[in-house]
Design goal:
Length: 427
């Protein structure tokens, strides 16, 4: 199609006029600054195209007024890359197209020749390259990983596809960035159910501004990001359900075994000490029989919370069976402070736990209970007792009284004024 010969009205800054004159003969260009003057001018003569620089909140009203004053003119909005969402809204308000500043002369000529309006491209988008398809596959394959890995793959994909020198992806699930905030010139929101859950920002390119085609592709990448993050959240949710105890929220036996195996590997490599305690609520069956299963479940939840409260954040507390817990103490980042050393015997741990339990107002224990909660414990340590998970757990099991013999036992009466005793008794 031949280039149009109609006059072009430019409403905006002198710099915008200069940009237009690089693509259109100067004699065809008429320039005005204020929006109101531009609306008046548009009705005084026939303009084939009107370029409007989006500058403030009055631009949407100006677009509608221009559409009424010059119904036969093509209205093209120009905006900075960071204002690209405004450009899209102005197309919805009546503009035919939007262009990003600084203007690309070839893109402007294409629009003036009659390229499809409303943000559509004059040609079919290029199909993704083989390396881009591979990057998409990598991003999809990372769905089962932590969100940080997904964002890393997405960043590589978007940077490679849009030739961006830097990128920032901020989401509710994490952030990836390899550029400074002041370098960002183009942003795209990541939307979910009409709510922004994050943003993708691209750094300024030395090779030239991002085109409207690049903006459209970035919009597509934002939709891909939302789908991948949604899938990741669902995957991690199912994983949490599979590895968590539904009653207490603690890791279950399966998660505990995997975690202890990994800790033992680290301990062997770094010569760390690990202490494993196995604790049994010995009278759980009798308690359930006297008060009902729901009361027993409530007691287990309270004990789980107390166990979590008397250990460090990095220590591992798990429910591995009905009334059985496992605790793994290890030095994750630094040595334990005084009074927080690894216990040498299960009895010392029970004494510390008992002091916390004595101050806790149990809802499932007290005068109405058939008797106290009886907690028995066994302890094993790496590397002195054993070097494998199975051997450590077996040693702690035998010392907790499951295999007969004496073991440390904690009696929790439950009321604030009740005594908490630690004795050695027959299992």
């Amino acid at each position: 199609m031949s280039e149009r010969t109609e006059a072009v009205l430019v409403i905006g800054s002198p710099a915008l006029r200069e940009s237009v004159c690089h693509a259109v003969p100067v004699e065809r260009v008429q320039h005005v600054g204020p929006l109101l003057e531009g609306v008046w001018t548009s009705g005084q003569r026939a303009f084939g195209t009107i370029l409007v620089q989006a500058r403030n909140g009055r631009t949407p009203a100006a677009i509608k007024a221009l559409r009424r004053a010059a119904p036969g003119s093509r209205i093209i909005v120009t905006c900075a890359p960071v204002d690209e969402p405004l450009g899209r809204r102005l197309v919805e308000d009546g503009a035919d197209h939007y262009l990003l500043e600084p203007l690309d002369p070839e893109e402007l000529r294409s629009v003036l020749r009659g390229a499809p309006a409303g943000g559509e491209c004059a040609r079919r988008p290029d199909p993704p390259a083989v390396d881009e398809i591979a990057s998409i596959a990598d991003a999809i394959g990372a769905v089962g990983d932590k969100p940080a890995r997904i964002l890393e793959h997405l960043a590589a994909l978007i940077q490679g596809s849009l030739a961006a020198p830097g990128i920032t992806i901020k989401t509710e699930q994490g952030t990836f960035s390899n550029c400074e905030p002041h370098e960002i010139v183009l942003e795209q929101a990541i939307m979910r159910d009409r709510r922004a859950i994050g943003r993708i920002g691209l750094a300024r390119r030395n090779s030239g501004p991002y085109t409207s085609s690049a903006v459209e592709r970035l919009s597509g990448f934002a939709r891909l990001a939302e789908e991948l993050l949604r899938a990741s959240a669902a995957c991690n949710g199912w994983r949490d359900l599979a590895s968590s105890d539904a009653l207490t929220g603690l890791p279950n036996a399966r998660a505990f075994e995997g975690a202890l195996d990994r800790l033992l590997q680290q301990a062997m490599a770094e010569r760390l000490r690990i202490t494993v305690l196995r604790l049994r609520l010995a009278n759980l069956d009798a308690y359930n029989g006297a008060h009902g299963r729901s009361a027993g479940d409530g007691l287990i939840r309270e004990l789980a919370g107390l166990l979590r409260g008397c250990t460090r954040a990095a220590d591992l507390v798990a429910r591995i069976d009905g009334g059985e817990f496992a605790v793994v103490l290890w030095d994750a980042e630094s040595r334990r402070v005084r009074d927080s050393e690894h216990p040498r015997e299960a009895e010392s741990f029970l004494q510390r736990f008992g002091s916390i339990a004595a101050e806790h107002e149990f809802r499932r224990l007290g005068p109405s209970a058939a008797g106290p909660a009886i907690l028995r414990a066994g302890l094993a340590s790496f590397p002195w007792t054993a070097a494998t998970r199975e051997a450590l757990m077996a040693a702690a099991d035998s010392r907790s009284g499951d295999a007969g013999g004496s073991c440390p036992t904690l009696f929790i009466a439950g009321a604030a004024e009740a005594s908490v005793l630690t004795n050695r008794t027959q299992a």
